[in-house]
Predict the 3D structure of the following.
Amino acid sequence: MKFGGTSVADGSKIKNVASLIKRFYDEKNEVIIVVSALSGVTDQLEKIARKASEDGGITDVKAFIEYFRDRHYAVVQEAVAEGEIKVVIEELDARLNDLENALISICHLRELTARSHDYLSSFGERLSAPILSASLKSMNLRSIALTGGDAGIVTDSNFTSARPLLDTTYAKVKERIFPLLEKKIIPVITGFVAADAKGIITTLSRGGSDYTAALIGAAIDADEIWIWTDVDGIMTADPKIISEARTLPTISYLEAMELSYFGAKVLHPKTIEPAVQKGITVRVRNTFNPEYPGTLIIKAHEHIKDIVKAVTLIQNIALINISGSGMAGNPGVAGRVFSALGRIGANIMMISQGSSEANISLVIDKTQLDASLHALQTEFNENIIKDISYDENVCVIAVVGDGMAGNPGVAGRVFSALGRIGANIMMISQGSSEANISFVVNKSDAQKALRALHDEFKLGVER
């Protein structure tokens, strides 16, 4: 079971989570817990780390530590029974002292490296896990708090976005977790925090707590992986935009992966991969509505009526167009484009190239636009490419459903619906799986396009 930041935002919520865990833990069900930092904490850690490196303000650091200590102490007082408070406070104090020393070092150095970033941003989970573990002990359950590294997750040393070494991780997680389960001890493991082969703290990128849960579930061949969040499950669209959006009772691995890559915020994009490899069912459930069954993610299911399952919108992106007659029939141009962007770590979300080979369009995160343009302009300073243009006033819409595969007419319905509202489509992309049609539209057209597609496929109607 993984619990996100909103599920453990304060003491009463942590107590609620502990009660949920106790409810599902019995002689038939062993449970392992992965927990995020308290809501907003990781953002606060990253902010103070940047401030320390830029301003060198030790006074600011000390004020932050006092605030941080007060917030976590207040959570302990509410979530933990009297008999367990002293031990957990001692553990928090030790970690808060480590955090303060690290931040003061950053102040003196005026430098924040990727390795330091991971160390500092890990403290949110390294403080929340002991509190939840103590809350479980307060309910007469045996528990232990572990970092992801303690639990056996071993990664490369690509700080801020480390990749697990799967064979090593699976072996070590089994070695460290199974003995705890045999002793009826519930492990509470830090989300998104791991360690490299030298034992240095790494992180699996923001949102990686889901991935931690999936890795541990795959390592021990769990029956199910449950992602507890603050919504009832995976929905047909963003309910903030489409009020009629409904929760999907069941979707396939492929659909869940497409939705997570294309902006659905309920799951981290990498979450499903370990589950797919091991064939493990994933459930998405609401911590604050535990009676609701949520969304079940399984290997495959029947494609009866649900040709399209959901529509999703990605904002804060940019479209880059690369064109030039010298590109046509010139081998290696596309390779150079992607190599140049790869060297700066740009995340390419969509790609489209016409058969004339004289144009390549791609979509990237808006925060990477300036670096991407510079990389491309540096790479192509000859006559092959005549123009590199960009547009920031765009959004991506993805139509997702594995029932679309081999089902003629779906694309026609998509573009007819968009035509009726006069949406200007600037780029189209569809993968060979046929489970996703993605396209770029003007930002001004995005929300009405999403509504038109939700209506066209009757996604708000219960099946």
User: Anything to note?
Assistant: The mean pLDDT is 92. The two ends are 29 Å apart (CA to CA). The chain has 15 helices and 17 strands.
